[in-house]
Amino acid sequence: MTRNGEHDMSTPEPSKNQDDWSPCPAGMLCQLGGRMRDNQTRRTVLKTAGGVATLALAAVLAVNLMPCPTPGGISCDQCVAQMPAYNLYLTADSDLAADDLAADDAEAMATHLKTCPKCRNYFERKYPGVLAATVSAGLGWLSLAVLGARRV
After folding, report:
1. Cα–Cα distance between 41 and 90 in angstroms, integer?
2. Going by C-beta distance under 8 Å and a sequence separation of 6 or more, which residues neighbour residue 73?
3. Per-residue pLDDT tens for 30-68?
4. Is residue 86 pLDDT above 80, yes or no?
5. Which of 39, 80, 127, 145 is the most buried (most CB within 10 A)?
6. Cβ atoms of 1 and 13 closer than 8 Å
7. 23: which residues sit within 8 A by CB, 6+ positions away?
8. What CA–CA distance (Å, rounded) separates 134 from 144?
């Protein structure tokens, strides 16, 4: 009832008579409880998945925003840019190959490729067998730069 005595249709008045209540059909409360448990489980799973997704995104951002390592004093971008000249340096028989890559740059490339698996794998895919052949020939990583310095 409202203040002026009219009946408010939006909220039902509580029943004072127990006869207004009807019994629940068999299994109705079990179904209601099951739905409530399912909803709670669904909420828990969504909260957990949201937390895991947030952690994964933070990890990806942290890895991508970290400064690129510079083994050998050169960045990965510089290493990739010098790979064609370094390949020539390792494979060419003539002294002309030394003109494309200075001995210091060759040493920096050797150090970078030795310590950076990402660049080493890229070099091995782009120039298959070159690094393996130089190492198996007993030239070693850093001795390649020394050998190149002697060629000049």
Report:
1. 62
2. 108, 111
3. 999 999 999 999 999 999 999 999 999 999 888 777 766
4. yes
5. 145
6. yes
7. none
8. 8
